[in-house]
Design goal:
Keywords: Glycosyltransferase, Membrane, Transferase, Transmembrane, Transmembrane helix
Distance between the termini: 69 Å
Family: Belongs to the glycosyltransferase 2 family.
Radius of gyration: 35 Å
GO molecular function: glycosyltransferase activity; S-adenosylmethionine-dependent methyltransferase activity
Protein name: Glycosyl/methyltransferase hybrid protein
Shape: globular
CATH architecture of the largest domain: 3-Layer(aba) Sandwich
Largest sheet: 10 strands, mixed
Number of domains: 5
Number of strands: 36
CATH class of the largest domain: Alpha Beta
Helix content: 25-40%
Length: 935
């Protein structure tokens, strides 16, 4: 009969001994002191209860229910992988070897090899024969069996009962224990070695897990962790969300994480006097003077820790405990769910999650949808991050909500569709309430399908789960995506039906408002383009600002169905003409679903232009414009999105489009050239303000009002408009000019840089913290234009240099002071090694210090002449690559504790020798320039 060794097991509630209990079958265990009981779960003893913070992990466990008994990891599989990885490591032609790897292994082969190489390196001088070994986060037992092949007496700890069940079944020679890494159920000093392979980044408390793993080590025992991603210590959660937004595993519930660098080292730093620490990276992004490092490299934690804390990559550690761990074991006092009870819910993933719903912490219930931030919890429930100004949200395979049933509402209603890009292969969406299917809705792109869930069966005040599951779909994030919007609680089906009728209106009229002034040939051409549009309900309004070339009469004669508006008195500019057209639409439109299309006459556009804009506006609930390209060269993008940087008061324009990009949804403004605005938005914010801005900036001012009111602005790349850029008004220039030309640039109504227009625009829309600064900059620009760009510059330029000279000198002095302060800090941190980093030496003393003290660059043959191996020195951190990879530089000049210190000392002297250093430096510089040119 199988018996379980309790000699090293502790009670996680009080830290006392555990003894068998019950009927003698070794299925129940009890604490000898506090009488807390534990039991086997799916055959594996489980010590501890799940806490509220573990609910993200419980969602991951639920995601694996469908794979139960089908995980496919057995001893033969592990041993086959071991043989294959060893053969690859010893192969002389690795590229040829990779081509022969079986297809079912090829996609993960290099990842497996990365893990294998890290473990092999970190155990290079350790024999596990006879060692008592703990594998934390053992999963299905892959690494546990690998450790047993090395001779270890292995205990495998696993958080998920499903994975532990499979591990026990396939690897019965390993002792399996269920429990938690942040509160290990083992006594102090129980193991000779602890391993944690690619598991720390799954754990909710990395510092606590490292603390506990060191606690259970015996003196002189070793902790080895491998293959964990890390991010800069000062970063927030947004970076993690951005990385996982397209990760299928995370969106299906796998609780991946990217801990901060500080999470890995905080415990080590607290007990540094009793620890020997080796820190290695397998990937390090943006390493100083090297760039991305993709080979295993060891670092000095004291010296390199501050640098690593600012970067990201993958980390591995080997930590030797020199003495008994001095701190008490962590205890568990706030469990909310036993593993046995959770396993009883696992008839399906949906059922397990529905049972979790009432236990959800308040912070996870009734999250706003679509929301504007996103969270790790929502990613694990299938929802990709919300996009700025987007009123819909994309789900991968399934999306899940947890909501509290309000007493006054009985239906949860929402709309379903597919992404506009057409890549999704989802055929329908099944709706599940608390684990039971309640409806299925066919979906397709470009149409919203109204859906509803009757929640009257859920008691008022209870938390419910609603799951939307894709039917059909491919394997990629794009192929299995569907979109949801407009989630709301309503009282009954009559309210739902009324909303459906309102949203299904397909006869919205588009009023194309075209402001014109003379240029009859452009107006005729524009009308013809509009008449060729595939979108049916389209009315053309020519808003004439006072043309003198017969435009009004000719257009009325040639196009009798076109409305021509004329000013009542004075000549109108762009703003007045558009405002006149919009006023007409506001008076004559009979539907809240109509649109206004602002369209300049000097443009060309395809027949589906209006249809695409309406389609995009309806899908994204936004005011939209099309991609603007040059009429003379359609490959030249003039405007793919416009932005305002208030800090510098610059108007930047996006000029490139990423592959597959179809919609840009974060623009700040749209141009008046070819933009479509839902009429309800105009009614909410008002018309174009022609009184404040008669010509330029009026469109920007209008769209700023839209955005400030919470409306979304975007640009679709699925259609484009061709613009005659040469017809633009007065464009700002640089260089010297006449007084008259500068006057027109600064004050003409046709000038894009009109001082008065910008002053008024800033007064209305600039954030408070920037407004006065921008005003000062505007005045400064006018003064500079008239004094430094006109003939007056011959008088003002010398005066300007004379007046600013003290500030220029002061700036140089301050700059040098900062440089020397940084240099002093580097000396305190690195000591004499600072000379190995010439960039840290202030520029005014860099050359003499370099010639007198610093080691120069070396080539591989220089290193090998002293009996040293460059790659080995790189891995140990003694050398680093320079910008030219055939050249190397020393990272340190202190080799006192190093093996082969005599040879290293000779290498240091050779690198320092001023006689040869100058020639090598010149050769390195020329090689670096050649490399740059080649790139």
């Amino acid at each position: 009969m199988y018996t379980f060794d309790l000699s090293d097991i502790r009670c996680v509630a009080c830290n006392n001994d555990i003894v068998p209990a019950g009927d003698g079958q070794c299925n129940i265990f009890a604490c000898a002191d506090c009488a807390r009981t534990y039991q086997k779960v799916l055959g594996v003893p489980f010590f501890g209860d799940y806490e509220e913070e573990d609910l993200l992990g419980l969602i991951e466990i639920a995601a694996n229910v469908g794979h139960r008994d089908r995980f496919g990891i057995t001893p033969s599989v592990v041993e086959e992988w071991e043989a294959l990885l060893l053969a690859y490591d010893q192969a002389t032609d690795k590229d040829a070897f990779l081509k022969k790897v079986p297809p079912e292994k090829a996609s993960v082969f290099l990842n497996r090899y990365g893990e294998w190489s890290e473990v092999s390196h970190l155990t290079r001088d350790i024999s596990l024969a006879g060692f008592k070994v703990l594998d934390v986060g053992a999963g299905l037992g892959f690494d546990s069996h690998r450790l047993s092949l090395l001779g270890g007496d292995v205990t495998a700890l696993e958080f998920s009962p499903l994975l532990a069940e499979s591990g026990l079944k396939n690897f019965p020679h390993i002792r399996w224990v269920g429990g938690f890494s942040h509160c290990l159920p083992f006594k102090n000093a129980s193991f000779d070695a602890v391993f944690c392979n690619a598991a720390l980044h799954h754990m909710r408390n990395v510092p606590a897990a490292i603390f506990e793993m060191l606690r259970v080590l015996r003196p002189n025992g070793v902790l080895i962790t491998t293959c964990d991603s890390f991010r800069p210590s000062e970063t927030g959660d947004d970076l993690e969300l951005e990385i996982f937004d397209k990760d299928p595993a995370v969106l299906l519930g796998v609780n991946e994480g990217i801990p901060r660098f500080s999470d890995f080292i905080s415990t080590l730093e607290r007990q540094s006097e009793i620890l020997d620490v080796e820190v290695l990276t397998h990937i390090l992004y943006d390493a100083p003077d090297i760039g991305t490092i993709t080979h295993l490299k060891q670092w000095n934690l004291r010296k390199d820790g501050p640098m690593l804390a600012k970067r990201s990559g993958s980390i591995a550690m080997r930590v030797r405990l020199k003495d008994v761990w001095p701190e008490p074991a962590r205890l568990q006092t706030n469990g909310v769910l036993s593993a046995q009870e959770y396993v009883s819910w696992m008839s399906s993933a949906s059922n397990a999650v529905s049972k979790l719903a009432p236990m959800m912490p308040r912070k996870y219930v009734d999250l706003p949808f679509p929301g504007d931030q996103g969270s790790k919890f929502e990613l694990l429930n299938g929802w990709r991050r919300p996009q700025k100004y987007q009123h819909a949200r994309t789900a991968y395979r399934r999306g899940r909500w947890f909501m509290r049933r309000p007493s006054e509402h009985s239906i949860v209603a929402f709309d379903l569709s597919l992404p506009l890009d057409g890549s999704s292969r989802v055929e329908a969406v099944k709706v599940v309430l608390n684990g039971a299917a309640v409806g299925t809705y066919p979906v397709r792109s470009k149409n919203w399908v109204p859906a509803q869930v009757d929640i009257t069966t859920v008691p008022s005040g209870d938390v419910l789960s609603i799951e939307l599951e894709a039917i059909g779909g491919g394997t990629s994030v794009e192929e299995a995506a569907f979109v949801v919007r407009n989630r709301r609680l309503i009282s009954g089906t009559s309210e739902f039906d009324a909303g459906v009728r309102s949203r299904n209106c397909q006869n919205s009229t588009v009023y194309a408002v075209v402001p014109v002034f003379n240029r009859l040939h452009f107006t005729r051409e524009c009308i013809r383009y509009l008449k060729e549009q595939t979108y049916g309900p389209l009315q053309i309004i020519i808003a004439d600002g006072g043309s003198t070339d017969g435009t009004q009469e000719i257009i009325r004669s040639e196009f009798p169905d076109v409305t021509v508006l004329t000013p009542s008195d004075a000549e109108l500019w762009w703003s007045g003409s558009v405002a006149m057209g919009v006023d007409y639409v506001l008076r004559h439109s009979g539907s809240i679903d109509d649109y206004v299309l602002m369209m300049n006459n000097d443009t060309q556009f395809p027949p589906n232009y209006v249809e695409k804009l309406v389609e995009t506006s309806e899908f994204y609930d936004a005011a939209v414009g099309g991609l603007i390209v040059d009429s003379h060269d359609a490959t030249r993008v003039l405007d793919a999105g416009e932005y305002i940087d208030w800090a510098t008061y610059t108007f930047s324009v996006k000029h490139s489009i990423n592959d597959g990009e179809r919609f840009c949804d974060d623009v700040d403004v749209l141009p008046g050239r070819g933009s479509l605005i839902p009429l309800r938005m105009i009614r909410a914010v008002g018309n174009i303000d022609a009184d404040m801005l008669p010509h330029y900036l009026a469109d920007y001012e209008f769209f700023c009002r839209l955005k400030e009111q919470g409306f979304r602005l975007g640009v679709t790349y699925e259609t484009q408009i061709l613009a005659h850029i040469e017809e633009t008004g007065i464009v700002p220039t640089n260089g010297s000019s006449s007084f008259r030309a500068i006057w027109h640039e600064v004050f003409s109504r046709r000038s894009m840089s009109n001082f008065g227009d910008h002053w008024r625009f800033v007064a209305r829309h600039a954030p408070d913290e920037y407004r006065n600064r921008i005003r000062f900059r505007l005045v400064k620009r006018v003064v500079a234009d008239f004094t430094l760009r006109t003939p007056a510059r011959w008088f003002f330029f010398p005066l300007y240099v004379l007046l600013t000279l003290p500030w220029r000198i002061l700036a140089v002095v301050k700059g040098q002071k900062r440089t020397f302060s940084r240099f002093a800090a580097a000396i305190r941190r690195d000591g004499a090694d600072v000379v190995c980093q010439p960039k840290l030496i202030p520029g005014i003393i860099r050359l003499p210090v370099y010639l007198a003290m610093a080691p120069g660059p070396l080539k591989r043959e220089h290193i090998e002449e002293h009996g040293l191996i460059a790659d080995e020195l790189l891995q140990r951190g003694i050398l680093r690559h320079t910008r030219c990879h055939e050249w190397y530089a020393l990272n340190t000049i202190n080799f006192g504790g190093e093996a082969a210190s005599t040879e290293l000392g000779q290498l240091r002297r050779r690198a320092w020798n001023p006689v040869t250093k100058i020639g090598r430096t010149v050769s390195w510089y020329l090689a670096t320039r050649k490399t740059r040119v080649a790139e």
